[in-house]
Amino acid sequence: MCLRMSGALAPTMQLPLQRVAAFHRGSVGANPSMSAARKWNEALDAWAIPKSILDQATESPWIHPPVLFDIPDIIESSPSHERAREALDGEASVLDVGCGGGIATYALVPRVRRAVGVDHQREMLAMFAANGTRLGVEVETIEGYWPEVASKAPLCDVATAHHVVYNVGNIVPFLEAMNEHARNRVVLELPSQHPLTNMSGAWRHFWQLERPSDPTPRDLLAVLEEMGVAANLEEWSGPTRTEPDRDQAAHFMRIRLCLPPERETEVRDFLVNQATATQRSLATVWWDVR
Fold first, then answer.
1. What is the spatial distance between Cα 28 and Cα 264, in angstroms, rounded to a whole number?
2. Can you tell me the distance from the alpha carbon of 95 to that of 160, in angstroms, rounded to the nearest whole number?
3. In this structure, are residues 181 and 153 in contact, taking their beta carbons and an 8 Å threshold?
4. Is the per-residue pLDDT at 103 higher than 50?
5. Would 174 be classed as within a structural domain?
6. 119 vs 217: CA distance, rounded Å
7. What's this model's pTM, rounded to 2 decimal places?
């Protein structure tokens, strides 16, 4: 499993759009021998923490603190939001997989009227529901992992998943279920590199461990092409979302690095000496369901 990262905010640059071949509903079929799907799975497997390090962890390093997934008071639009907004029709419904606080969905208010959030953490779903109620949106929540709980989800105008797919090794069933639950369009957002790439320096510093960098959005596009999906790739840049509190950032990084509590000060000192990027490269992968 890999760390889910929160959704991005406003873009500052938009790069050329890339498209691949045509897709028709019902043409998607899983094939365990797909080279692109296997490559995706193997690339994510390479992110596994070595057992010798994992055995030293005092708590699970695969944390998703809900505080990092709440939505800002003002959600600035991104290409991912724009692609989703284009596909909303009269029902104006969105299925948000790995919803967190709902940044993928609630940027579409007031267009969106019904929001269905899927997440495996109850705290995320509670936050998603509270944000939707505050914004006057009809909300439904589904607890569990996608696509295992897909049968509980309704058909919606748009199915979206922001910063989730790098968690998913068996990617084809995930994408198939997204496609089956979208009336008009599927919209995925992901960083241009694996979200844990920004911790590679820390792994090298504390454990002398080199980390991979694959897969990438283009690897996802290759999987979709093998599935027969006419996917579009839009690359752009947006603000880096980081923990505003240095102590909190050190705490979360210490856990992710499998280090004991007494080394948290070392992690904080490491962070103080690191350059902080203000922008990151992101990608929107989307396709119309016909």
1. 47
2. 6
3. yes
4. yes
5. yes
6. 22
7. 0.85
The count of domains in the chain is 1
Distance CA 287, CA 170 (A): 20
Q: What is the pLDDT of residue 42?
A: 97
Q: Which 3 state secondary structure label does DSSP give 31?
A: coil
24/229 Cα distance (integer angstroms): 7
- Per the domain annotation, does 203 fall within a domain? no
CATH number of 59's domain: 3.40.50.150
In the chain, the N- to C-terminal Cα span, in Å, equals 32
| Residue 76: how many other CB atoms lie within 10 Å | 13
Which residues face 230 on adjacent strands?
none
Residue 204 in this model has a pLDDT that exceeds 50: yes
The Cα 243–Cα 95 span in angstroms is 27
Amino acid, res. 233: L
Note down the domain range covering 28. Answer: 13-192+212-238+280-288
When pLDDT is cut at 50, 70 and 90, the band that residue 68 belongs to is low
Dump pLDDT digits (tens) for 225-258. 999 999 999 999 988 776 668 898 899 999 999 9
Q: Would you say residue 266 lies in a domain?
A: no
- pLDDT of amino acid 221: 97
Tell which wins on pLDDT, 31 or 136: 136
What confidence score (pLDDT) does residue 121 get?
Answer: 92
Write out the two tokens for 47. Answer: 């992110």
For residue 197, what are its two tokens?
């790439």
Q: What is the dihedral of CA 121, 125, 127, 131, to 10 degrees?
A: 160
Separation between Cα atoms, residue 18 and residue 218, nearest integer Å: 10
Cβ atoms of 185 and 87 closer than 8 Å: yes
47 belongs to a structural domain: yes
Q: Are 224 and 243 in contact (CB under 8 A)?
A: no
Q: How far apart are CA 94 and CA 86, in angstroms?
A: 12
Q: How far apart are CA 131 and CA 69, in angstroms?
A: 12
Place of tokens 């949106």: 137
